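for the record, two folds in this file. i put them one after another cuz i was lazy. first one right below, seq on top, structure tokens after. the second one comes after a little note so u can tell where it starts
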Amino acid sequence: PADQLTDGDKHFLLEHFFMINKDGVIAFHPRYYDLYFKKHSRKDFSTQDFLDLQVWFNLAWIDPLFRENNPALKALVLKARFFTEDDKRIVLETQQNILRRIIPAYKKYLDSGQIEVTANPYYHPILPLLYNSKLAVEANRTTPLPKTMFAYPEDAQAQIDDAVAFYTSRFGRAPLGMWPSEEAVCEHIIPGLIQSGIRWIVTDEAILFKSVHAKKRDTRLLYQPHLLRREAGELAVVFRDRNLSDLIGFEYNKWHPKDAVNDFMRHLRNIYLAFGDQDVLVTIALDGENAWEYFRNDGHDFLNEFYGQLSHARFLKTTTVAEYLLAHPPTHQIKRLGAGSWIFGDFGKWMGNQYKNIAWEYLTAARAEFELILTSERKDRLGPNFPLAVKQMRICEGSDWFWWYGDRHAGFDALFRAHLANFYTLIEQPVPEYLKRPIEP
């Protein structure tokens, strides 16, 4: 309740409850915009101001489609200010109701064949770096490595297997495709993907040209699926058109929606004209959570125009990857898949910076301590804490902790150290003193 906020609570709200695109979202809601300027003018917030901020932050992050079609939310948008605790409760309960509809909605369209839903390694780790952090040098020979190496292939496999199990429990079928976190791949993780039942993966075009040692961009290679045939079996891989994907991800939010879609369709038509009657697969792949906040109306104007033009275009056909691979099995084999991710074709966003490397060293020390438990009787003594410790370690292996080091993001630093400290508590070991101090000053 706003009238029970501590000074720490108030500081948290002011620091975090404006974390949404200012020009694309906040500015379209006068009361929210007023609070934004009040914060930056360093004016004191009243209890009502804090309550309005609580409501607006949660309300603004709800998709416009829901705000428009839900009478209660629509009424709150129109009310705009002087919210009550009951108003806040309506917003929070509606959030939960929307969340409950997401998986069933995806399952409905998955069952109808209209979409394909891929899996992602469970806690979003960089799989190659879990397998062996020395692979950072394979992706970029100039990468400075941590003083201690993280090398636990079984953890990479567990993240894959947990994702497959979770997907299967929700959708009643195993996933055919997997989006490796940050499109981070290497040769070493292929057998594990095959053994888990994954049929295809997607990664960036830079990995393709690295894998085939191409000296320049070759769309004849890019616009087709490829085959990874190994002792464990076969895995297909598709490579995204980076230019087209990044237009949607980073550029078109600055354009009028129709102009943006017309430009995109022009690129697709040029590909069609270049290849004539040949059947080619153009893969557009981007992180779904990043783009739409920066588009007007959460991207609805762009997406409605985009899907409309795709549906009516006679020179192309939209398809799921699994559907395409069934009709057009890959024939071009890649003997060794290069190591890298969608960002510059390497792993520099997660390893190499001095603070990132310190974080890896802390993780490696914790994982080594856990290995001692796994190979001793201490495992049984932990009782119900053991599965919690396993889960906590998997969380610590996630990619975002390392992403933010070097950007002075104190919040992620504190969270990462808190998770590691919790791990030590779960295995009944003293928390190292270094976890009580920031990694990045």
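(here's the note) second protein begins now
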Amino acid sequence: MAVSELTIRPRIVVFGGTFDPIHNGHIAIARCLRDELMAEKVLMVPAGRPWLRDASPIASPEDRLRLAGLATRDEDGIEVSDVDVVRQGTTYSIDTIRDLKAIYGDNYEFILAVGTDAASTLRRWHCYDELITVCTIAVVERPGQPVVIGTHLPPDTISIRGPMVDVSASNIRWMYACGDVGVAADYVPALTHRFIIDNRLYRCDPT
């Protein structure tokens, strides 16, 4: 086939997570995915009932969806999808990709972004063989933890060096629970912070 006959499909990057709460580190990763992969859009997909977690998220799926929407309101090329929240039952990545392909059609190339920890268990994921045929895997490396593409990852896996952001959702929840709302505000987008305060999502002080 001649090069002129090749069709280059626009990319949609699927970035899922509990986002409990979404924070500046998540936004930095989404921007990195958008820019490094030259994606038309990054879809941040808050999980409904994630199957790989022993404990349920603290905030409800609806609140986490709202937080993500507020955090990405002014971000070019970064959007939020509710496909995992509106679906009943356990959340599997294959269902996320199937639903998004049904919405956006086959004119897009879908890339599923995962972290290094998730990448190490990829072969245990539900419908793994189908998953790697309907999307490409992109592993976001943690600083100092390069990814080795081996037998546990498909050969077409993309490795991306993630941004250096030292923040975790669990620490942020602890800050809100302890009333350190001023410190927590440094780690989450402003509209997200205000929603958490107004709704006391993590038992924070209403100040």
